[in-house]
Write a structure and sequence with these properties.
It is found in: Nucleus, Nucleolus. Helix content is about 45%, strand content about 15%. By secondary structure, it is an alpha/beta fold. It has one domain (about 5-230): 3-Layer(aba) Sandwich (Rossmann fold). It has a seven-stranded parallel beta sheet with strand order 3-4-2-5-6-1-7, with helices on both faces. α3 (about 50-60) runs parallel beside α4, α4 (about 75-90) packs across α5 and α7 packs across α9 (about 190-200). The radius of gyration is 17 Å and the shape is globular. It binds adenosine-5'-diphosphate and magnesium ion (MG). Magnesium ion binds near residues 75, 76 and 179. Adenosine-5'-diphosphate binds near residues 52, 69 and 74.
Amino acid sequence: KRDQEDVEKLRKATDELDTKTADLKNFTDLPLCEATAAGLRASHFEVLTDVQRAAIPLALKGKDILGAAKTGSGKTLAFLIPVLEKLYRERWTEFDGLGALIISPTRELAVQIFEVLRKIGRKHAFSAGLVIGGKSLREEAERLGRMNILVCTPGRMLQHLDQTAGFDVDNLQMLVLDEADRIMDMGFQLAVDALVEHLPKNRQTLLFSATQSKRVSDLARLSLKDPEYVSVHEEA
Ligand code: ADP
Ligand code: MG
């Protein structure tokens, strides 16, 4: 069960995880709670990809991450697993409000992330929602206050933060910027800057992109604190 003892055990195992020498191969080698482990098993995920092996242990230890790895390398689980584990370790409940915010450049990508979250998060009790427009602002707004995890596009999320009365993000634990290169290429810089302004400073931030660029490092400078760089290259 979701008791303090289990959380303490996970925290200890995470502290003891040596990210330099850790010989990690499978998801079962990571200190994950039973709900996350069961969600991964049920989704038939077994062996870590390179970016997952590099990023997840650091993220579990609470580090900010600046991650670059090509499309198809498995970046989605590299941030969704830390999101679930963070909220589990904080013993997040439906009454704690928004705990994690995941920003994606497009509605299609947001939907894909949400589907993976539903699959691997199925054994967790967290509520999760999509904020990508398509419904009236008011309809979306009514559900926002009850969500623990939101997957959103930048423009729509900013609209809510500016306009939805009583939408409280003060407890936010984790911000994820996925496909940061595309977020910048699509001209969302100002929206993301404004969005980040609304969020508490005392949070963990994970930023992932397929490519490294000046714009991505600009965004990283603004949103990350003393980040760990995780860059996965293909073998020559
Ligand atoms: P990226 O975001 O880096 O482009 P995705 O997270 O979308 O990559 O993953 C690409 C594909 O790889 C998806 O079909 C996903 O289900 C699969 N995948 C991710 N991690 C693993 C894993 N550890 N084992 C097997 N398949 C995986
Ligand atoms: Mg991706």
